[in-house]
Every structure is written in structure tokens, then in C-alpha cells.
Specification:
506 residues, alpha/beta, TIM Barrel, 8-stranded parallel beta sheet, 19 helices, 20 strands, 12% strand, globular, disordered N terminus
């Protein structure tokens, strides 16, 4: 055989190995819930304390409109201008809540079902700094970065939905920032998306933009492919008026919501984990009761995000073991109540793509997934305690999520997989399992083969340049950004949007 033939044969084998298998061994949406950090008695104790907080302390700073709606469904006035939530009202809200619903993609094939025990990784965050792909140093995030991150993640199978991961700091006007953020999502991806609205009056005009992309007036509300991230509760236990106004507008326009509670242990919530969980659950349930009072059963992701700070310094500790534990417990509590759960994990406090990064991302993401978090936010790309975002991190995290999904998929025990006949054949035959049909079947079905992680022996690794994960991911991110330039708006749609709005990206 000639050297040319040998090279061609090797290239063909490598291409076959790198190709997607007939059966994907680790697709998104695997079942979680095997990890249960809380016992049944502990779940009940936390919930009982939560109900007591809502019934006896309630919520403060309730806007007048919301106060009237809450009183109509069974809330009570308390002292000190607080509104109390009796246990029956809380239970009514839980019972009538949407337990599962669809997060639509503009491409229907990319829609996902939220709820039950299905686990999906996605994005979040509002990073004001980007880890520059050229200098490897942080700089202010820009609108161009947002477009680049959006089209980068569009190629990543394990980002099930996309929320803006950075804030365009070069767009100072809040309305123009909201508009241009949504435009970046529309132009560069057809996955389910999410955004934030600074003020309620921004919602209606942006829905006009969404209607243009959806096909005409009213089309978006018929099949909403973008949800809203809203934080209507300010810890501890009071409402935020501007965010509540946004909630009303989103419900009016049929925009599904993720109502996010993001208390910080030892700062805006108790430092003890049990106390933290009780308060945080009370606050997220208050959001659910709010939605119930406005429109019972409206789709809401129960986004109870426990955040941890280093009590010695006050620094955020997103990659800590406590963060992993608390978010896993939050997912367990939400799922125990039968509510679509959202948690924030796969975060890191590392600034570089280094060992700290890998440890913290892996620890927090696997804990949340094993506990059954339905939507795991902040799980792709985020660095530097959520202050930063990285192109390399996006592609590395995507591969990490495949390993997590493979772990969640578990072990299928059946007669064929137990392999009695295959063991007999190997023992009485060649003495190994290499090349057997049982092995070939498992190779395609049961194993994930990473495209970035290096499994070469040290000498081969050195001969190939001794590249670390950062440099490998850098090359992959560059390749995607150079080649994937989608245009998910038609020329007519793009023109109509630019006629109506001040779009700042060419």
C-alpha cells in the first residue's frame, strides 16, 4: 500500500470517528433528580418555614396595582404596609401553575419542553467585560461582542436556549440597549431566546420588532420564541416596582417569564443554608403568587437562584461547593413542588481558562444537573464571578455539558447490554473484546468522544505542539466565528426593523 493510500485511509477513519454517531449518546434533555441533598423531612421543614414567612411577615413595598390584585385572590393586609400570603393562597398558586410548557425556537425543531425531570443547559448573565480572544485580557463588552457570542453559540448543541451573556457597554441608552440586544438575538440564532426589559414601556415596541421577525402583527404572541428574565423581588422580601410593571406588560403580550430570585447568603439572606433556602423559596413563591393573581397558570420558570458570597471579603463565590449544594437543593425543592425549576450553576470565579475554571465549572454544573434543574442558567461562557464572558469558555463548556448529559443518561441494564454471550465468545475465543459486534454497537451508542479534550499519550501531545485547553478552544472559537455568519432575518424583515428602530450594528 502506498503512503498516499495509507494517509487517505487514516483521514477517512479519523473523519468517521469525529462524525456524529447514528445514536447521539448524550443529547440535551436527559433526566435528572438522582441527587437529593435534602431528606423528605428537611424539605417539609424548609417549606413550613417558608409558609410561615409568607403568612406572618409577607412582602413589603407592594405596588398599588399588584396589591389590589393580590387582595382579590386571598392575600391579606398586614402591618407596616406589608401584604401577607396565607398558606391556602400559596397552595392555590402552586396547584394552578404551569407545570410544563414549551420554550419555542423560531425554528420549531429547536424548541424545548421545560419541566418534569428534563435537564437543559443554557445561558444568562450580564457580563460587562469580555475576555478578548486575541489579547487574553478583559475589556469592556460591546455590541459587536454580543453579536459574536450569539452566532458562536448558535452552533453549540448543548446551549438549549440563549439569553444575552453580556451587556453592550457601548450602548448607553437603556431603550436602545434593549432594542439592539433583541436584534442581535433575532439576527444570529433561531434557538429559544430570552432578554430583559429595563422598563415596562420598552416591552410593546420590542414586541413590534418580534412581530416583524415572526411574520406580522400579533404573530409573536401566538407563538412566543423569546422569554423575559425579570427579578420582581428585592431580597429580603420586598417587591421592586419597575420589575413588577414589566411582569404585567409581559403577561399582556404573552411573553413567558423567568422570575428570578437571586439572594446572597449572609448579605440579603441568612448565612445558614437552611435559612437561606427558606427565605429564597418564600421570595420565589411570592413571584408565583403575583403571576397567579394577574393570570393563573401563566408560564413562569421558577427561578430560585441561591448565590453565595465569601463572608470574609464580600466577593461573589459562584464556583464554590456551597453554590453547588444550594442550587442542587433549590432544584430539588422546586421539583418537589412540581414547578419548572431554574437554577444558576456552571459558574466560576476564575478569570483565566485554567484549572480553577475547570474544577468550579464541573463541580457546580454536575450537581445542579444530577439534582434535576430543568433550566440551568449561566452555564455557558461565564467567567470572573459573572463579571466576564469568554469565547473559549463557550466551546469548552459545550463539551463539558456533553459529559454531564452522558452521566445523567446512566446505565441501561438489559439482556443485550449485560453481554453474557459476548463474554463467552471472548473468553473462549480471542481472549478480548476488540472488534466484536457487541463492542462496535456500544461504541456508537454508549460513548461520547470529545472533540477538544486531549487523549493522546504525552509524546504525541508534545509533538503536536503541547497545546493546552485554552489554545485549543481559542482555535475552535475562531474557526466558528470566521465561518458561521447566519442571517436569520430576511432582507425585508431587516429593512422593516431598521426603518422602525435605531439599529447600531451594520
Amino acid at each position: 500500500m502506498s503512503e498516499t493510500s495509507r494517509r487517505a485511509g487514516r483521514a477517512e477513519r479519523l473523519a468517521k470517528r469525529s462524525a456524529k454517531p447514528v445514536i447521539d449518546p448524550c443529547p440535551p434533555g436527559q433526566a435528572g433528580g438522582a441527587y437529593k441533598p435534602l431528606t423528605e423531612a428537611e424539605l417539609n421543614a424548609i417549606y413550613d418555614t417558608t409558609l410561615a414567612l409568607l403568612a406572618k411577615l409577607g412582602l413589603g413595598e407592594v405596588p398599588d396595582r399588584l396589591s389590589r390584585d393580590l387582595l382579590k385572590v386571598g392575600a391579606r393586609e398586614g402591618g407596616n404596609d406589608r401584604i401577607l400570603f396565607p398558606p391556602k393562597l400559596v397552595q392555590d398558586a402552586v396547584d394552578s401553575a404551569a407545570k410544563t410548557f414549551t420554550l419555542h425556537g423560531r425554528d420549531p425543531a429547536r424548541s424545548i419542553e421545560v419541566g418534569g425531570n428534563r435537564v437543559h443547559f443554557g445561558t444568562g448573565g450580564a457580563a460587562v467585560q469580555t475576555l478578548d480572544i486575541d489579547t487574553h485580557l478583559y475589556r469592556p463588552s460591546t455590541l459587536a461582542d454580543l453579536h459574536d457570542f450569539t452566532r458562536l453559540q448558535d452552533t453549540l448543541a448543548n446551549v438549549s436556549w440563549y439569553t444575552r451573556c453580556c451587556v453592550a457597554t457601548d450602548v448607553p441608552d437603556n431603550f436602545e440597549l434593549n432594542v439592539n440586544t433583541v436584534y442581535a438575538l433575532l439576527r444570529n440564532t433561531t434557538k429559544p431566546t430570552a432578554t430583559s426589559f429595563t422598563l415596562a414601556e420598552h416591552v410593546a415596541p420590542i414586541v413590534e420588532m418580534l412581530d416583524i421577525a415572526a411574520g406580522g402583527p400579533g404573530a409573536f404572541s401566538e407563538r412566543p420564541f423569546m422569554k423575559a428574565h425579570i427579578s420582581p423581588i428585592i431580597s429580603p422580601l420586598r417587591f421592586g416596582a419597575d420589575a413588577v410593571d414589566v411582569v404585567y406588560e409581559c403577561i399582556r403580550h404573552n411573553i413567558p417569564m423567568s422570575c428570578i430570585t437571586a439572594a446572597q447568603a449572609g448579605a440579603t439572606a441568612p448565612a445558614t443554608m437552611a435559612g437561606f433556602l427558606a427565605q429564597s423559596l418564600a421570595e420565589t413563591l411570592a413571584s408565583l403568587v403575583m403571576v397567579h393573581a394577574i393570570q393563573p397558570g401563566f408560564p413562569m420558570v421558577f427561578s430560585n437562584w441561591p448565590l453565595v458570597i465569601d463572608l470574609r471579603t464580600g466577593a461573589f463565590a459562584g464556583g464554590s461547593g456551597e453554590t453547588a449544594l444550594l442550587n442542587a437543593a433549590s432544584a430539588q425543592l422546586s421539583n418537589w413542588l412540581g414547578l419548572p425549576s431554574g437554577v444558576a450553576c456552571s459558574m466560576t470565579d476564575a478569570k483565566a481558562i485554567d484549572a480553577q475554571y475547570g474544577v468550579e465549572k464541573g463541580l457546580t454544573s454536575i450537581a445542579a444537573a444530577l439534582a434535576g434543574g430543568n433550566l440551568i442558567y449561566e452555564s455557558s461562557g461565564m467567567t470572573a464571578s459573572l463579571l466576564g464572558v469568554s469565547f473559549e469558555a463557550f466551546v469548552l463548556d459545550d463539551e463539558m455539558h456533553s459529559h454531564t448529559y452522558r452521566a445523567l443518561r446512566g446505565i441501561e441494564v438489559n439482556e443485550a447490554n449485560l453481554g453474557y454471550d459476548a463474554i463467552l465468545d471472548a473468553v473462549l475465543g480471542d481472549g478480548h473484546f476488540l472488534g466484536g459486534q457487541h463492542t462496535f454497537a456500544a461504541m456508537e451508542r454508549d460513548y461520547f468522544y470529545p472533540g477538544l479534550a486531549n487523549r493522546d499519550e504525552p509524546r504525541t501531545w508534545a509533538q503536536n505542539g503541547a497545546r493546552d485547553a485554552w489554545s485549543v478552544a481559542n482555535a475552535r472559537a475562531r474557526e466558528i466565528l470566521e465561518t458561521h455568519r447566519p442571517e436569520f432575518l430576511t432582507p425585508d424583515q431587516d429593512h422593516a426593523i431598521r426603518q422602525r428602530f435605531n439599529i447600531l450594528h451594520a
